[in-house]
Design a protein that fits this description.
By secondary structure, this protein is α/β, with parallel strands linked by helices. The chain has 22 helices and 18 strands. It has a seven-stranded mixed β-sheet, with helices on both faces. Strands 2-1-3-4-6-5 form a six-stranded parallel β-sheet, sandwiched between helices. The protein is globular. Keywords: Thiamine pyrophosphate, Transferase.
């Protein structure tokens, strides 16, 4: 259904009808890297009030920022991308967004219909490029279709837990007279869980050899409180998936460990559980296949109870589980207490970094974690830090952390953002620093400078490669030449510091958190 906006000028072109429809549907932020085909959308952003535009120098920054924005705002932003190649540049972080259950509305420009026939140099199969990373793909055919297509794109993006929607906007549909602004369309509600599944979970959760495995919206502070009551009643263990879109943590909150990433550690941890109830999580599998090792990480005789998926009403089902177990009035188990941490002296290691984080993390911080190998020591040490939010890479495509920090800071300008990034990962989307400086975002970045793709050194062993030679090791090294992180940061307008000792790291991170703008610290390991 469409309605004529009393405040919009007449006639209104397709691009303006789309911008006004997005705003009416609650989409008020656009992460953009436009080109010629999108200029009418750019012009509409200029003269239609209500849409904030954040410029990125690389499309992977725009798509990753939209992911981070959804995780913290709970509503989608849009991206503005230039034709098929621009979309292709953003695919890796759209993959991550899709795996995280983040709602994103991509607006991708296309040639005018008359130009498509000419097979111009930038002509490509945009829909074909979009489909693997999108739940919903639509190309507007007429300018009068654009507003309704935009409303449907937002509705698709808001489908629980969140979806990637890609709207292809041919330039002639942007410049031709459009239809009226479309009314917002209601998103689908979260699915309710059948009673018999709750009954199965009640029977399965009994004692320390049972596990409640949590993911998605089960990791809010309120839902973790429910999980803690369930654990108090049943004695079951609580774990989350290895990577989570968003988890609330810290003192006063129920502490939940993670299924480890290294396959041998994961097999050891999960072997003790004979019954596993899934609430917003998938049954545990390995990140990769390894010779002679199982892909399924649970014991062969484990009973898996699929209580609820990521798109289900996880708050409702955990409440039902509490009621079924007569646990609703209990005090939650596994609540973290505040712990004071002493920062050690000496060289920077994963363990000393963890101590620094536990010591200096401010209350209500947002932690964006793309540390992979270095970060394996962080979770236990920070369980008693002030209450905070932790964001992980759910899709495994590196280059996630810096853009997601941009999106999180855009959504929550009143909160401190702490981005923990490996040096190899950060180089994929280093352009995000420029956007942080341009927007003067309150982000402190710690780059773990081990001058290598450290995770891949371990993976050589995991896949059975013994005694790798110098050429193999050289392919995983970043020290010829060393990366100049301080110079790169300052070249993009971000203050930078280099430290190689733990006490100096603590001082630098504290100073970065006390400042109001972006700051980068290279932690030499």
């Amino acid at each position: 259904m469409t309605v004529r906006s009393e405040t919009s000028p007449t006639p209104m072109n397709g691009a303006e009808s789309l911008v006004r429809t997005l705003i009416a549907s609650g989409v008020d932020t656009c992460f953009s890297n436009p080109g010629t085909s999108e200029m009418h959308f750019v012009a509409a952003l200029d003269h239609v009030a209500g849409m904030r535009s954040v410029l990125a120098l690389f499309e992977g920054v725009a798509t990753g920022a939209a992911d981070g924005y959804y995780r913290m705002a709970g509503k989608p932003a849009c991206t503005l991308l230039h034709l098929g190649p621009g979309l292709a540049n953003g695919l890796a972080n759209l993959h991550n967004a899709k795996k995280a259950g983040s709602g994103v509305v991509n607006i991708v420009g296309e040639h005018a219909a008359s130009h498509v026939e000419l097979d111009a140099p930038l002509m490509s199969d945009i829909a074909g490029i979009a489909r693997p990373v999108s739940h919903w793909v639509q190309a507007s055919v007429l300018a009068t279709d654009v507003a309704d297509d935009g409303a449907r794109a937002v509705q698709a993006a808001m489908t629980p837990p969140g979806q990637v929607a890609t709207l292809i906007l041919p330039s002639d549909t942007a410049w031709n007279p459009g239809g009226p602004v479309a009314e917002p369309l209601p998103p689908a509600p979260r699915s309710q869980v059948a009673d018999h599944l709750v009954d199965q979970a009640v029977g399965a959760l009994d004692g320390p050899d049972s596990l409640l495995l949590l993911g998605g919206a089960a990791l809010t502070a309120e839902n973790l409180e429910l999980a803690g009551r369930i654990a108090a009643r049943t004695g079951c263990a609580l774990l989350s998936e290895w990577s989570n879109a968003r988890m609330e943590r810290g003192a006063g909150r129920v502490s939940v460990g993670k299924v480890p990433y290294p396959i041998d550690m994961a097999l050891e941890v999960l072997h003790r559980y004979r019954r596993i109830v899934l609430a917003g999580a998938r049954a545990p599998i390995g990140f990769f296949a390894y010779p002679g090792k199982p892909a399924v990480l649970t014991r062969k005789d484990a009973q898996i109870v699929p209580l609820a998926g990521a798109g289900d009403d996880l708050t409702g089902v955990l409440g039902m589980l509490c009621d079924g177990l007569a646990a609703s009035d209990l005090t939650a188990a596994h609540v973290s207490s505040r712990q004071e941490t002493t920062v050690p002296q000496g060289a920077i290691t994963p363990e000393t970094i963890a101590a620094v984080l536990a010591r200096v993390m401010p209350e209500n911080a947002i932690v964006v974690d793309e540390s992979v190998t270095t970060g394996r020591a962080f979770f236990p040490a920070t369980a008693g830090a002030p209450p905070h939010t932790w964001l992980n890479n759910c899709g495994g495509s590196i280059g996630f952390g810096l853009p997601v920090a941009v999106g999180a800071a855009t959504a929550c300008p009143d909160r401190k953002v702490l981005a923990l990034i490996g040096d190899g990962s950060a180089m994929y989307t280093v352009q995000a620093l420029w956007t942080m400086a341009r927007e003067q975002q309150d982000v402190t970045i710690v780059i773990f400078s081990n001058r290598s793709y450290e995770i891949l050194r371990g993976e050589l062993t995991n896949v059975g490669v013994r005694n790798p030679g110098p050429r193999a090791v050289d392919m995983l090294s970043l020290n010829r030449p060393d990366l100049g992180w301080v110079q790169m940061a300052r070249g993009m307008g971000v203050e930078g510091f280099r430290v190689d000792e733990t006490q100096a790291l603590a001082q630098a991170v504290q100073a970065g958190l006390e400042s109001d703008g972006p700051c980068l610290i290279e932690a030499v390991m």
